[in-house]
Amino acid sequence: MKAKIKSIICLALIVITVASLAACAGRAVPSGINDDGDFVYTIVRSSSATKNEEDAFKNLRTAMKKNFGFSINITKDAVVEDFDGNFEILIGNTNREESAKAREVLLNNRVNNSFDFIVKVIDDKICINAVSDEVIVTAVDWFIHTYCQNLESWSLLKSNYEFIYEHSVTAVSHSVAGRDLGTFTVVLPQKTSIMVGIATDEYVDYFTKMGYVIKEHDDVDKEEEYEILIGDTTRKESVNTKVEGDNYVIKVVGKKLVVKGGTHLATWRGVKALNEQLGKGETINFSDGYTLNGKYDANEKGTYTLNWYDEFEGSTIDFNKWSDYGNQAEKKPTDSALGGKIYNTNVYNDCMYKGSDMPAKLIYQSDGYIHLGTKRVNDVDFIGSAISTWWTMIYRYGAIDIFIDMAENPATASLWLNGANVGTKSFIERFGNLERPCMLEVDILENFGNDNMFASNIHRWWSDYYPDGTYKASGHSSTMTTDPQYQPGASNSKRLEYNTEKYGDNMTDGFHMISCYWDDKCMKFAFDGKVFCTYDYTDHVGTNVCALMDYFIASTNMGSPTYGPTYQKDEHKDFYETQIDYIRIYQTDAVNSQMLTAWPQKQSSGELKIKYPENPLGGSY
Questions:
Q1: Confidence of residue 281 (pLDDT cuts 50, 70, 90)
Q2: Taking Cα atoms as reference points, which of 118, 157, 110, 112 lies closest to residue 135?
Q3: Whole-number Cα distances in Å, 610 to 310, 354, 589, 596, 613
Q4: Alpha-carbon torsion 531, 535, 537, 542, what sign?
Q5: Virtual torsion, Cα 387, 391, 397, 400, nearest 10 deg
Q6: Where are the alpha helices (DSSP H) in 30-96?
Q7: Contact 203, 275 (CB under 8 A)
Q8: Once rounded to an integer, what is the mean pLDDT over residues 60-71?
Q9: Cα–Cα distance for residue pair 579/521, rounded to 1 Å
């Protein structure tokens, strides 16, 4: 979960700073050049600096070169070992001990410090630091305007100079067990619903806006003294707090605040109840033993309800929910890496491959799971598997949780939403005319055969429109992939990398929660309930396509020459399998949600059911 930090305007600080400089004692810091004609100070950045920080460093160097008349070097902290008399401008959390000292002074100044920054001179170092990377960028900009306009402004820096900027925030002091609640560490279960994760994000955002830096852990992290325990964590205070069904409880147990429900929705409602109390603007003061009981009510206005799900209990696949993937392009075999073909089998285990080595079933239900297999059936040919709601369910907006154990390398697992080919005759007979000149594809998970990484993506496809009012598919699209803010290494990256060192296993070694939240403003992707990427429609052109309805597909394959790792006969097994424990879709009437459910694929007719019939069906772009 990543809280957004608001930008602060630094130019207004100059007046404050100049006034503080007048009272600053000590000698001026060095301002000359060395024998090589370079400025005596070197700009030193952390090896883990973000791109925005790097741009700020370059702006600092450019300003000093322009206004001082000589060049200045930028280097990474790991490149040059420190020594006495090594004059440096340290920006951010470098490996120099002076950076840590400056940060410690900032942290000890006040607890709600996420928008604050410090400029401190320590011996031969000038330290610029902040709690957040975004504020470091602002601090550098302020430093440029304050000290780098000319050598006279530079001379204002003194040997014992220290300036802390405290951003003006409206803070309400809440306490639990006698301690400021804004200093508590939030702890979630290692694996939970995106509904719980999003409600927790709202809690974190509340305190972030007041300048607090909320630490967020899951229950495999080291225990802290003061924690807010959300959901069914392994902490003893959570384990010993009993709650069942739709009930939830908010309870202080020693130095822990427990928020727990009998279901994911009940826990979500419990966190919402806590957020509602905080949002009243009144100070809360919970002591040990404080207890508030409540209950999730599916009839509450604006609440989320479980509108579609499959727990995969029993030995028979529910064909009211699952069908063939009706996009005809998916039925054609493709070339394999071994010179043969890759075939697909559907939920009925129908397949174009008719060899004697065709397995009896690649898709089946048992032990509380649905199994999706992929197999090499001879020296060159492969079969993969896919299930879909193409014939049975299509929806818009909501949160989907998929609890899944992905097949390992070299098999590829995919979970996605799609809106292609909804204009076919068979589709229209079931759902009505949802034909449109564009479509939305949401790749909730593509692991590309990687055991410890997957990517999420959004593709917006559109067709060529002709003057006579017709249109034809063109293959034109826009995607998150082309936007730098979603690339690997960005703070909002669409790629999730599993922390094998922390968890002690591979991502494909067990079940994990893969989730997507979708409404009329954004999409959020989450792993084990923690949001790692948010796609905000307001940042993009042509966002109406994100209001179009989609169906769901899950698949497992291997053997492709281009998608995922290349299959090696002497290294890989003949068979791999994905298992799904459950799939749940939660929706609310608070946004323009919609869901259409039809009859089984092999049933000639039936009743079309419309969830939220008062909302427009959204067939238009």
A1: confident
A2: 118
A3: 19, 39, 13, 5, 6
A4: negative
A5: -20
A6: 51-68
A7: yes
A8: 89
A9: 32
Query: Residue 280 carries which side chain, given as an amino acid letter?
Result: K
CA–CA gap between residue 420 and residue 558 (Å, rounded):
23
How many Å apart are CA 139 and CA 155, to the nearest integer?
Answer: 19
Do the beta carbons of residue 297 and residue 245 sit within 8 Å? Answer: no
The pLDDT of residue 5 is 38
CA separation for the pair 143, 228 (Å, rounded): 38
d(CA 140, CA 53): 9
* 528 confidence band (pLDDT: 50, 70, 90): very high
pLDDT, one tens digit per residue, over 75-124 is 999 998 999 989 999 999 999 999 999 999 999 999 899 899 999 999 99
* Token pair 């010993």: residue: 240
Closest CA to 518 of 304, 261, 322, 325: 304
Q: Which tokens hold the place of 154? A: 């530079």
Q: For the chain, give me the number of helices (H) and strands (E)? A: 10, 35
Strands 74-76 and 42-45: parallel
| pLDDT, tens only, 564-591 | 999 999 999 999 999 999 999 999 999 9
Query: 152-176 b/e with 16+ CB inside 10 Å = b?
Result: ebbebbeeebbbbbebebeebebeb
- C-alpha dist (Å) from residue 76 to 30, 227, 619: 22, 36, 53
Residues in Cβ contact with 580 at an 8 Å cutoff, skipping those fewer than 6 apart? 312, 369, 370, 372, 402, 403, 404, 405, 554
Residue 593 tokens, joined = 């949600």
Mean pLDDT of the chain: 89
The single residue listed with the structure tokens 């174009």 is: 352
Give residue-wise pLDDT tens across range 338-354.
Answer: 999 999 999 999 998 98
pLDDT > 70: percent of the chain:
91
Residue 114 token pair: 């996420």
Q: Residues 208-253: pLDDT tens digits?
A: 999 999 999 999 999 999 999 999 999 999 999 999 999 999 999 9
Helix axes 133-147, 13-22, angle to 10 degrees: 60
Cis peptide before 410 (omega within 30 of 0): yes
